[in-house]
Amino acid sequence: LAYVNVDGIGQRQAARHSATASAALARVATRVMRSGAGARVTPSRPGTNSDQSFNGIGVPLLQLNHSRLDSDGGYWWWHTRDDTYDKIDFEVLRADAHLYVDAFLELLTAEVYPIDLMAEAAAIGDALAERGAEAGGRLNLGPAAARHLELTQAFATLQTTLRPMPDLDRALVHVIRPLHRVLYVADSNAHPDPGLSLGPLPGLAPARILSEERPDSDRFRFARTSLLRERTRIVEAIDEATTRARALTTRIRESSQ
Asked: Residue 51 has what pLDDT?
């Protein structure tokens, strides 16, 4: 249902709260930090690194952070032989653990699994706009944008239809899975990307090449071919998520009759 990364907790002199989360779980992270730590945070997008192993299978991500300030030396001992017992503050560890308990309780016991469908739809819409701007008007993302409008409408209908029913949690993850893959993985679902962040919709990262190169250059042509193929992949993912959302909406309505 989710990949929750628990890392770097209990740091001595921890003073800064932040969070990392997929768009679909950002609302959970924000609420937990506000209610449990009195901290108002805007969760950042998960990067591509060794701790994000499940992007290819489309599982949403959540991580809560409580760290030292840079002015206090930061988390300098991380992954060194100096990362020893004396670096733990057990009161901080207790507070950090309570934050995760709160998050797990919501993920595991909420009547309706707390995936934010509209945030996920907005994330892919924003990413399409960003990549289009990078291409300098030389990449037609209209087909994906048109499908995105249908997706947003389908998600809005589903969001207002949601009510408790058997296996709804996994069904909701199933709905967003195609979107999560293209938002975070540039290659096959079975081949995790290397530890290099290419931003949202990483398969469209070559878009900037179109604004940098002459249209008759080999670099431009290779990039354009790659981007058109990725556009097809994105359109397919959006269509699949839309179809799944509509099917789940129908299933919920039928179950309540």
From this structure: 62
Cα separation, 212 vs 134, whole angstroms: 10
Write the CA distances from 24 to 63, 113, 119, 221, integer angstroms. 13, 11, 6, 35
Measured in degrees and rounded to the nearest 5, phi and psi for residue 227 equal: -70, -40
User: Taking CA 102 as the corner, what is the angle to CA 73 and CA 94, rounded to the nearest 5 degrees?
Assistant: 45
d(CA 244, CA 242): 5
Contact 95, 37 (CB under 8 A): yes
Average pLDDT over residues 7-28: 94
**Do the Cβ atoms of 186 and 193 come closer than 8 Å?**
yes
CA nearest to 158, candidates 148, 145, 171, 147: 171
What's the distance, CA 1 to chain centroid? 13
Place of tokens 């308990």: 101
Contact predicate 114/106, CB 8 Å: yes
Structure tokens at 210: 């179109």
Q: Please give the structure tokens belonging to residue 172.
A: 């909701």
Average pLDDT (112-139) is 96
In this predicted model, what pLDDT tens digit does every residue of 133-165 receive, in sequence order? 999 999 999 999 999 999 999 999 999 999 999
